[in-house]
Each structure stands twice: as C-alpha cells, then as structure tokens.
Design goal:
single chain; 267 residues; Rossmann fold; four-stranded parallel beta sheet; two-stranded antiparallel ribbon; 8 helices; 6 strands; 36% helix
C-alpha cells in the first residue's frame, strides 16, 4: 500500500476533492508534511533512513491519536538537501532553493484548499533551516496560515536514557539511535554484520566551535568519517528501537494535539 506506515484513514491522498471541500472546521485540521532524505547511512543501513523514520514515527503517532483530532499526513518528500553526503554513492540531493520552492508551493496549494495549519515534519539534520525559512515566508505571505517547522527527534522522548553520553554528543548519523529504530521499523533492510563504530575525527579541541552546537562550523561528511557513520551502530538493538519509537511517537501525539488547539498570538 502506498500509504506505507500511515493509517489509511489519516492519509491525505486517499481523500476525494469532495471530502476536502466538505471537511468541517478546516482551518484547524492539522496537515503534516513529512520531509526526509535519500542519502548514505553507512555500510549497514539503507539510504532511505531519514524518510523511513519520519513515516514510522508519524504513522504510529496517528494510530494513537484521538479520532476526534483531525490530522492528515501528506506523502513524504523523500528527497532533501543532502549535499554534505555528496561524496558517497547513492546520495540524492536537492539544492536549498529547490527544496524551499517545493515547500512554498505545496503550502500555497494547501492554503487554496482552505487549510490553515501545516506541520513541516523534518527528519534530516541537514535541512532544519530550510523548514524554518519556508515556515516564516509562508506565514508572512498568508498571515492566517500557521506553519510549524518541527524536527522529528525534538519531541520529548527517552532516547537520552538509552544512549551513552558520547553517543548523545557525537552519534549524529547512522549510529545507535538510528540503527536501533531501523531494526524496529525495517529489520530486513538492516545489515548488522556490516555495522561499524566510528566517531567524527579531527574535531577542534578546547574550542567553542563544534559540529552542531551554538557555534558551528560548516563540514562535509567525508571530512569527518571514512564509513559515513558517526556513532556506534554495533550496539544497536531492536528492543531499544521499539522503546525509542514508542516514546518519540508519544511525543508527536502530544504535539499534534497542541497544534490542533493552537491559536496564533496577536496583540
């Protein structure tokens, strides 16, 4: 089924145009656009990781969501801005300009259909800034259109209880968390016999500068890792993945409810 992990009754493309025209309280219906990436994730994970995790989390959240809360998932945008992984075969990347244009035009289409709440659910760490720019520009153009640029992993969850301190800081790509959750979602696509442990090398020491902190520097993946992995994939387990998936999806249930009730502040 083309809805993948998304419950069929929550999959926007399965609606007819008359379903959409007659939808009650349309301005508070929550429309969710998953945004992923097709990019390398080491020798052990498929290149669909970011898109798969976004859809898996969202699907489980929508299964748990109260039926009285109207929320629908759009088809995933599988391609994203992944040029930091450009040197690894299989990575497909859009430019920032192309991705921004797609998000803007998708949002404008939804606005014409009468919707006023849009979530940009991003699962790839290389493009949250584009989500934020798109959200601000759409809202500036249409003042009554509320747009939420959210990162899949930033809802409250228990991942920090299951990962080591080093993994939490440096395991940002194809490490324990992503490998564990993929063992939960798509175990047949995970090659654990190829899993590796590799943390970023050559980082500045005794410096305020870091990869993704408050004072970051620009980097490309092949400058920091030979395998494409940043983290310890060898310790990943399905049990951890199941627990993380449940926890992150619970966080998304709460966020979707909050967005449904949200009203734009206005002095």
């Amino acid at each position: 089924m083309i809805n993948n992990f998304i419950p069929s009754q929550r999959f926007f493309p399965y609606l007819t145009w008359t379903d959409i025209e007659e939808m009650p309280d349309k301005e508070n219906v929550v429309i969710i656009q998953p945004v992923g990436a097709i990019e390398q994730h080491g020798p052990h994970l498929p290149i669909i990781v970011d898109a798969a995790i976004g859809l898996g989390v969202l699907g489980k959240a929508l299964e748990k969501l109260d039926a009285n809360v109207p929320a629908y998932a759009l088809p995933s945008l599988y391609y994203g801005k992944s040029n930091e992984h450009f040197h690894f075969p299989g990575t497909i990347t859009l430019s920032a300009q192309t991705l921004l244009a797609v998000l803007m035009e998708m949002g404008e289409s939804l606005y014409r259909s009468g919707f006023r709440k849009l979530v940009l659910m991003n699962s790839h760490g290389g493009q949250p800034q584009i989500m934020e720019i798109a959200a601000r520009d759409i809202h500036q153009k249409y003042g009554d259109f509320l747009v939420f640029p959210l990162f899949t992993w930033r809802v409250p969850n228990i991942a920090s209880e299951l990962l080591t301190e080093k993994e939490l800081e440096y395991g940002i790509h194809a490490g324990d968390a992503e490998t564990s959750i993929m063992l939960s979602l798509l175990p047949e696509q995970v090659k654990m016999d190829r899993a590796v442990k590799e943390y970023p090398s050559g980082l500045p020491e005794d410096s305020l500068l870091s990869m993704e902190g408050k004072l970051p520097f620009a980097w490309l993946t092949n400058e920091l890792t030979q395998t494409g992995v940043m983290g310890d994939a060898t310790v990943a387990t399905k049990e951890k993945g199941d627990r993380i998936l449940e926890s992150v999806s619970d966080g998304w249930v709460t966020v979707i409810k909050d967005i449904y009730k949200f009203r734009q502040p206005n002095v």
